[in-house]
Structures are given as structure tokens and as C-alpha cells.
Design goal:
Chain lengths: 531, 531
């Protein structure tokens, strides 16, 4: 359509990415991940290895029974390996699990380096080629679109080009839609990648010629781009570069390189424009700290500290920025005198006071309050409920419907269930209530006591429910005395919103977030009545 | 001596590195840094910009009065800029500060891109060349070894090669020992770097042809290596890639690439063999969290999780490692998780029982226990301390040195500091202690009470410290009643390890992780005594 050359993204965040140390997705997280990534136009999403562990099985079952998943733009891929040495594909448990999975695409890896055939498989070359060819054929015949991951292709190619290429040939003879050249150990140099890809592209013309690079030499992005320039048209990678050891090729870096700097067609403009947010969302799901020094999408990526740089960048942003930060949903930050974000903020304040303009001193004031709060550890991008309350407060429009006068919590963790008790004192007008609640753990007890007490005054809050609760230690190096941030998500009918609290005491941080959530329910109700 | 081609390292960690967000060196830190780096054989160390701020001035004064500094193998360099538009070098404060500094080498930057000459300097090309030539000449005549940092050389070269090369020429006419081609905005692609370096190397033969790359495109390492292969013989970079925005070229990655993989002579073998330690030491001085996913030197760099990888790496480490981890002072780690196989586990169990084999029923039993624990929410890849305790337990080798008989926690979050109290009862043999502790928040109180009580029996635990504390809500959809996982990291002398606890009550989960951490301190001590 655009006349630009296309590069197809094969997203292995949920499979190879999840192999990264410290990266953890629950099955629920994975479902959320799919729902989000399916909107982006990523071409293939590798969901896991069916049959390898109960969690992956549960995930594939959930995908199979989900109506929405099939309707997205992305294809689900299942991952696995060829049959074993001496085994017929029909007898391979691995292959039969792949075949019976709900995924329309399947990727299997096989050996492309003689060292592995000899020392790991302990078989001969012909048998290796047979395993590849017949495994691919078996899956193809079963109706799957098959990709062959040529493990250690570049090491294998350096060692014996004919052998390595013959492995690709075996896969294509078996009917593979694509062959993927893997730098499995991640130690290759761009020159080696170029040679290998050129040789593969000269010998064969598969529908997809893929590259799968690891970052053990800090070269995963450079190697992937080199491969594309040498003729590869598919990239396997993960958001934020999650993955085993030093990680996989970072899609958060690769996509802007390809689409914004090198002129390829990769994903829709809306996705690229939202990349900073998307990358953060994925890190949040994986509960992995987001790398703020990350190219393009990190908070530091366009942060200018040196005075001379700041001066120049204000004269012309090209002087010290290699791309416009807004092209990837990021923003310039002037570390000395920050002035970004005002437009966004003003836009949000218009919800409550439509006539407000960017130059209104209230916008400046709100900006200062937010900056101060962020310094203390608050974050509003996942807590827009708390942000709205803060803005209403600054505009003089907030009337808190109740006051939490006091609360205490006792916990006796070895007692088993309902091991904690909280007592809460709430005042509405001149009437107070003092009510206790029991729970599993102190936060649960506090939450229950708060809701019990408030529902005396505001029965409506029983209609709302807490749909998510997250805790993050902001600076763990202070140990158990560290500040924590609690983010709570509340659902009420069709609406849902996040609220945030920050304190060294997790109970206080939780109370702040819970109170904000309940304020919104109560205020929205009275709004509904008057409006 | 070795016949290998030399590459000279110019270390800008203390100057450009210190511009990185979150990187902070005190003057004392900088002195420690110099002492350490001088031992490594790094050729030039950029110490700062004399005259630009009081901290840098103090540092240069300390260097000048230090007897040891001059005796090292490295040369100190001072950083600054050319004289201003229309200014004579004799009248330049910047240049006179550089000249009077104690540094034998000086690096000044100047413009090499017409855009900057026009829009930032607002002068003409001739004046730009004069500023460069005369500034270099002034410093050279004053006895300094002078490097010229050609700012934005690659953008300037792409825009107008003749203009950019003429800037280098001006510096060489002025007597520069070296010219350094800078990718200041960090957005260049290796092909552009190659073209620029080849052109400079063809036009001139300076003593040093340097490369200064930034990581805004994730290419700083690839670009630096490409420059070396195109003829550059000096690299400016920083340890751990510290630096403005996305950082500078990472010396911790570049040095092993050059010396171990590409056959150049860079630093002494002892330095390279100690690189993991050195990189951590620098991060420690800068008070910046060490990136454990870093190539070569990170803790994850040789950490294997997938079962098949582990199996193969044990057969032959080359199968899944691009270099031998010990060559950079790092080590292989076998991570245990539900995705990994028996081989990983057995390898780990050998630490305690060297004769154990993969078929031992204890391995199967351990596997089952781990899988069960992971289903409950435990994770062992960041909690190897707890894993070791679990394995010792299964092998019948664990004797817990104490029992936590009971504990209670009270919290009054609105009280302010020390708002929580914990009481802990511990038994060792037939002696019990019942001690209270106060803290900021309930977890902190519990931690303090535990340590106070246990140190009565085991004074050694006061030598250990908590270096990190993390909480994750495992399934937030149960709201505040969700299960949480707590991971604690403990440091004791040179050792550090993670431990984990899981429960619906965050205090219970924290207690589990803290207890495991303390068991290890106590057990390691008695091991030391008997062993």
C-alpha cells in the first residue's frame, strides 16, 4: 500500500521473553498481553510450548475457548521442537501436542550446527535433516503454517556453510512457510549475520526469511537490522528485550528503527506513536522493572541535562535529538526546567472546567503538584482516578464526602485464615462510625473494615469491586523500611479506574489508594443524581 | 609485543558518564575511581571539565596534590570546548582553565555539522574552523596533548562531507594528537559510521583516530566496533554504558568484544579477567543499580533456564555460551524453574552432594517440590538462597538453627514515623527469647524485631544487611486478599543471595523470606567453623 518494503514481526515475549530471569507472566497476565498486542498489528505472537508445563497448557486452553482472540489481526504461534533422533513424527508427543493446539502457526527448532548434532543429539547429519524435514512435513500436512527455527545457524554456517544451508533446505522440502536464522548464543558480529543471511537468501526464496537474535554481545538490535538489510523479512524479538540471559532482540528499539529511520513498513502508525506506553505496559504485566535508559521509549531517552544541549535543543530539536520523541509517544525532558506535559494536563483539566487554557496559573500549579508527587513516588499513568481527584482539588472542585479519622491494624500471621483485624473510624458531617473488619492479612482486614464502615453511610459502594491490587517497592535498597507504591483498580458497572498511594507503611499506602477509589464511587453517584 | 593491533581506551565515565540520569559520583568516589582504573591499564581517563563547577575544580586540585595518581599507567585528561565565536584563545577562560589544569591531556569539542554552526553558533564556516585550529594550537603550544572531539561528525558528514572533514583538518593543523569522531545524538547506523571513519582515515593519518558513540539507537557498541574495523584506534566510552540519555558506548561490553572475540590488544589480561567485578565496583561508586542483564558481566549473562540448554551446556559449554564466562570473571548459573529440567536441578544439588546423579530419586522429589511451590507462587530464579535451603532439606542435610514460635504486629499508620510494633518469639534449643521492635510500617517492624531477637543468639547476623526488598501481588484479582510473593536480597561481605516467601498475609510472606535469609547467614558461619 505504501510502497515500502514490509518487515513482519514475530513476537516471542511470552515464550523466549518469559525465559528471562525475573520475567514472570501469570496466565491472566498472558491473556491481558494477548488482548493488548492483538490490537497493534504484530503479525505473529508466540504463546508458549504446549505440553511442556501445566501453565502453558492452561494458557492454550484459555486461548482456544476465547472468542475474541481469534478475531484479532495477529496469528497465534505455538513453539516446540522437531521429533527426536530415530523417532517417527507420528509417534512424537511434542509434535502431536503442537498439532492439537489451537494455534494456526507452529514454530519448531532444530539443529543447524554440526557441533550440536554430534555432541548434543549424538547422531549423524542425515538423521538431523530427516528430523527437520519430516517434522515440518507432519505439521504442514496437519494444516499448520510452519516456521523452522534454525538453532545456532550462524555458528553452524561459520563452521560449515553447506551443512547449515542443508538444514534450511530440509525444512523447506518439508513445506515450511518460513525459515528463521537464529543466533542462539547471541555472540555473532553483524558481518557474520550479513554473510549468513545473504547466503540463505541466495540459496532459497522462502515466504519468510527470519532472524532471531540474542543480546549476549549487545548486538541483538544491530544484528537484526543487518539481517533485514541483507534480505530477511521477519524479525523475532520481544518487547523491552526480555529473554534468556542478556535477552532477545528488543522490539521496542527495532520497530522505530525500521519504521521511522530506515523506511520499512512494520506496524500501524498508531502503534508506533504509542510505543512508549506499550513497552511500559508489557513491563508492568511481567512485573519487571522498566529500563528507563532504553532507546526511544525510556524516560531518559530524550532527557537533556547539559546546559548547552538544552539551549540548542530549544533552538532546534534536531541539534540534540536523533528523532522527534513524540513519534514514539515519548517526550523531551529538560532536567533543569521542565515544561513538557502542560498541554496534556490542560486537556485533562478541561473535563472538569472546559474553558481552561494552557496559560491558566492552575495548570502551572497542577504541574508543580504532580512533579512533587512523582518525586515522592506517585505515578499517575496507571492511576488516573487519583490524578482526577488531584486536579479537582487544585481547581477547588473537590469536596471529600467523608474523613478517615483513624485506623489501627493487628496481625497474628501464624493463626491461619482471618489472621488480621483492622478498626476504622470514619466521620461524615458530624456523625462518626467506628467499625472493625477481619481479613487474610493486614491489608485485606483494612480494606474490609473500610468498606463495612463506609457502606453504613454510602450503600452504593457495595456495588463497586476491587479488580486489581499491586504493590511496588520504590527503592528496595532501604530494605523493609523502603517506600512502597500501591495501585488499586476498582470496577463499578462498566467503569474502572486506578488509584494510587505512596508511603513507607504499606497499610497507609493501601489506605490512600482505597480511599481515592471510594471517593470516586461516591462522587460519581452524587454527580449522577445532580447531573 | 603480541603482534595484535592495539585499540586505546579513553574512559569518559567521570565526565560524560556522570551526565547520565541517576549517576552520581562524589569527589571522594572519583578519587577511588581513579585509583582503581589506573591499575587497569586504561590509556586515558577523562576527569571532568575544570572551571565548569566547584566539584570538578576540587577534584582536579585533589588530583594535582596526589602523589600516587601521576604514577599510574593512565593519563588524566581534562575536557572543555574551543574558544567562543570571535574570541582569541589567549582571552578564553575555558582554554586557560584547561591549560592550567594538572591534566597532561586535554580534549576540546567543536562543531562539525553545518546545522550547528548556523543555528547554534550563528557564525560562518571559516570562523568555526578558526576556533578549532587556534584553540588546539594554543593548548598544544602550552605543552598539552590535545584531542579534538568533532561533535556530530556523522550527521555533519552525511550533510556535507567536505565541511565535516575540514573541521578535522583544522584540528590537525593546530597540532592535535588525535581527532575523535562523535555520534553525539547517538542515532547513527553502523553503515554511516563506517563511511565516516573510512573517509577520515583516508584523508588524514592522525596518531589517534577516535570514536565517541552514544546509545540512543541501541547501537553504541556496534558503532564503536564498526569504527575500529574501519580504522579507528581509540574508543571513548564508559563502564556500564553510563552517560547522558541512553548512555555512552559501554566499555564493559566493548573490551571483551575487542580483546576476546575480535583479536585486538586492549587491556591487560588481568583486567579483562576481572571485568565483572570492575563493572560492579564502578556501579557501586556511582550509586547506580547494576544492570544484571548486561552482556558479559551481568549476573544473568550466563544464566541458563531452559532445560535443554542446561543439558547441552553441561556436555559442552560452547553449545550455549558464546565465550567462557570465567574469561571476564563471570560464572555460569543454572536457574531452576518449572520450565527447566532435571539436569539443572541435579547440577545444583551436586554443590551439596557431589556424587548425586540425574536418576537419583531425590532429584525427582526435589523437582516435584519445586513445581508444587511454583504453583503456590514461589519463584526460585531470583531466590537461590531459598532454593538451596529447600534442596538441603530434601537431601536431609538441613538443620534449622532456630524456630520462630510466634509473632504479632500492630500498626497505627496515622501516627507518623515508627508507627508499627512487632513482637517476636524465637527458640534455640530449649531457650526462648521474646523481643519487640518498632519500625516504619509493619514489615519494617517485623524485620527489626526478628533481627534483634536473633542477634541475641547469633551476633553474626548483625554483619549481614538487607540490600533489596520486593513485593509482588500474584493474582491481584482477589484484591487485597490476594496472595503476595516477597523477595528479599541479603548481602553479607562479598556474598549476596535472594530468598522468597509467599502468603496471603504480607507479613507472613516477609517473615518467610527474612527467615530463609537469616538461616543462610547462620549456617554459612557454622560451615566456616567446621569446614
Amino acid at each position: 500500500m505504501s510502497g515500502k518494503k514490509a518487515v513482519y514481526i514475530y513476537d516471542t515475549t511470552l515464550r523466549d521473553g518469559a525465559q528471562g530471569e525475573g520475567v514472570h507472566f501469570s496466565v491472566k497476565d498472558k491473556m491481558l498481553y494477548l488482548a493488548k498486542i492483538m490490537e497493534t498489528g504484530v503479525h505473529y505472537i508466540e504463546a508458549g510450548w504446549p505440553g511442556s508445563n501445566p501453565k502453558d497448557d492452561e494458557f492454550f486452553n484459555r486461548i482456544a475457548s476465547s472468542e475474541t482472540i481469534g478475531s484479532g489481526m495477529s496469528k497465534i504461534a505455538a513453539f516446540g521442537s522437531t521429533c527426536r533422533v530415530g523417532e517417527e513424527p507420528e509417534n512424537s508427543e511434542i509434535l502431536s501436542n503442537l498439532l492439537s493446539s489451537c494455534a494456526p502457526a507452529v514454530t519448531i527448532f532444530g539443529k543447524a550446527w554440526k557441533l550440536h548434532v554430534k555432541e548434543v543429539l549424538r547422531t549423524d547429519h542425515r538423521e538431523n535433516w530427516r528430523m527437520i524435514r519430516e517434522s515440518v512435513r507432519f505439521l504442514s500436512a496437519g494444516g499448520k503454517e510452519v516456521f523452522f527455527d534454525a538453532e545456532h545457524f550462524f555458528d553452524g554456517f561459520a563452521d560449515d556453510p553447506d551443512f547449515a544451508l542443508a538444514c534450511l533446505e530440509a525444512a523447506l522440502e518439508g513445506g515450511a512457510t518460513g525459515v528463521v536464522l537464529c543466533d542462539t548464543n547471541g555472540g555473532a558480529f553483524p558481518d557474520e549475520i550479513r554473510k549468513g543471511v545473504l547466503a540463505a537468501g541466495k540459496a532459497f526464496v522462502p515466504r519468510y526469511l527470519g532472524i532471531h537474535a540474542h543480546n549476549d554481545g549487545g548486538m541483538a538490535v544491530a544484528n537484526s537490522l543487518t539481517a533485514v538489510q541483507a534480505g530477511a523479512n521477519q524479525i523475532q524479538g520481544s518487547w523491552n528485550g526480555f529473554g534468556e540471559r542478556c535477552g532477545n532482540a528488543n522490539l521496542s528499539t527495532l520497530v522505530p528503527w525500521l519504521q521511522l529511520k530506515l523506511g520499512y513498513q512494520v506496524l500501524g502508525a498508531e502503534t508506533v506513536n504509542d510505543l512508549s506506553h506499550l513497552s511500559r505496559y508489557v513491563a508492568e504485566l511481567a512485573n519487571y522493572p522498566f529500563d528507563e535508559k532504553q532507546p526511544f521509549v525510556g524516560k531518559s531517552a530524550f532527557a537533556h541535562k547539559a546546559g548547552m544541549h538544552v539551549d540548542a535543543v530549544i533552538k532546534n530539536h534536531k541539534t540534540f535529538e536523533h528523532i522527534d520523541p513524540s513519534a514514539v509517544g515519548n517526550e523531551r525532558r529538560i532536567l533543569v526546567s521542565e515544561q513538557s506535559g502542560k498541554a496534556n494536563l490542560c486537556q485533562r483539566m478541561k473535563k472538569f472546567q472546559p474553558e481552561i487554557t494552557k496559560d491558566d496559573p492552575l495548570v502551572e500549579k497542577a504541574m508543580d503538584r504532580i512533579k512533587q508527587a512523582e518525586k515522592e513516588g506517585f505515578q499517575y499513568d496507571t492511576a488516573e482516578g487519583s490524578l482526577d481527584l488531584l486536579l479537582l482539588d487544585i481547581m477547588g472542585l473537590l469536596r471529600r464526602p467523608f474523613v478517615l479519622e483513624d485506623y489501627h491494624v493487628w496481625s497474628d500471621p501464624l493463626r491461619g485464615e482471618l489472621d488480621s483485624v483492622a478498626v476504622v473510624k470514619v466521620r461524615v458531617g458530624d456523625r462518626s462510625e467506628h467499625i472493625a473488619g477481619e481479613g487474610d492479612g493486614p491489608v485485606h482486614a483494612l480494606d474490609k473494615a473500610l468498606r463495612r464502615t463506609l457502606s453504613v453511610f454510602f450503600p452504593i459502594i457495595e456495588e463497586s469491586e476491587l479488580s486489581d491490587y499491586k504493590v511496588r517497592v520504590i527503592d528496595g535498597s532501604h530494605g523493609t523500611g523502603a517506600t512502597v507504591r500501591v495501585v488499586v483498580e476498582t470496577r463499578w458497572g462498566l467503569r474502572s479506574w486506578g488509584t494510587v498511594g505512596v508511603a513507607t507503611n504499606i497499610l497507609r499506602a493501601s489506605a490512600m489508594a482505597l480511599l481515592d477509589a471510594l471517593y470516586i464511587v461516591i462522587l460519581s453517584q452524587s454527580e449522577g443524581k445532580t447531573g
